[in-house]
Amino acid sequence: MRIRGRTAVVTGVSSGIGRAVAMHLARRGADVALVARRAEALEAAAGEARRSGGRVIVVICDVTDAQAVARAHARVMDELGPPDIVVNAAGFGVWKPFLEITPAEHAGMMQTMYGGAHHWVREVLPGMLARRRGHIVNLSAGSGQFGLPVTSGYSAAAFAVRGFSEALRRELTGRGVGVSCVCPGSVRTPFWSAERTPPDGIPPLVRWAPKLSAASVARNVGWCIRFNLAVRTLPLPVAFLARANALWVRLGDLILWKWFVPLVAVALLLRLTIF
Q1: Cα end-to-end span (Å), the chain
Q2: What is the mean pLDDT of residues 234-250?
Q3: What is the pLDDT of residues 173-210, one digit of tens each?
């Protein structure tokens, strides 16, 4: 689906990936509804998006609240028209051992990532099917492809988004509506903090993998919309681990083993030195 001239809804626009996606779509000629809870951050994002020349509206909405999402959707319909593109990017993560994560944090991750996507899809899908046109992109994570030791709550939410997206894509095949799931690894955003994502317990492959820019994730979202891609997992080390883990869980365990990365590095250095 082309992006120019379409109406897009992007959630989680206060910062990070959601904001980068909104800017990407605005620069490519879409009219964009910016959805998040923080009014000040939304207004700042709107100012930047409007410089691209398209129509932009700010919609303050808690995506965990189905009624709030219904009201937000009605406002988008009134001010921009029926959404052609919806990108569910709202989410947050707490990476700690299972017993250190509070029940409220576990529930919050699921309600924001999966619940938010679910609520928006229920609102926009009937119209998309009636028009036989639309594309939905759900943001999951590398942790939605394989579970890490300290991501029980986050992986559960990310896996839910991944499974929801895959099932929905197959259900809607041939009906004019595409569904994609983007699964990024580490991204340079406010997601990472010493309080919510302490480095202890995070495997070296994940900790040392290059961090993506939010703009690079946004470009991948754009490719999913334009070319109707099913899944994008990035960067390459995360995509490799996801495929290895899907092939054989024990192989994933080996790759995540704390000595795997140093041993591979030593082996490569020895090969370069000897040969």
Answers
A1: 50
A2: 77
A3: 999 999 999 999 888 776 656 565 666 666 666 666 67
What tokens appear for 142 in the block? 């590398």
Residue 183 corresponds to which amino acid? C
4-39 per-position pLDDT tens digit: 999 999 999 998 999 999 999 999 999 999 999 999
Angle of helix 249-256 relative to helix 236-247, nearest 10 degrees, comes to 140
Q: How far is CA 138 from CA 132, 197, 204, in A?
A: 19, 22, 27
Spell out the SS3 assignment of the chain: CCCCCCEEEEECCCCHHHHHHHHHHHHCCCEEEEEECCHHHHHHHHHHHHCCCCCEEEEECCCCCHHHHHHHHHHHHHHCCCCCEEEECCCCCCCCCHHHCCHHHHHHHHHHHHHHHHHHHHHHHHHHHHHCCEEEEEECCHHHCCCCCCCHHHHHHHHHHHHHHHHHHHHCCCCCEEEEEEEECCECCCCCCCCCCCCCCCCHHHHHCCCECHHHHHHHHHHHHHHCCCEEEECHHHHHHHHHHHHCHHHHHHHHCCCHHHHHHHHHHHHHHHC
**Rounded Cα gap, residues 11 and 22, in angstroms:** 9
Q: Which residues are catalytic?
A: 154
The letter for the amino acid at 92 is F
- The residue type of 33 is A
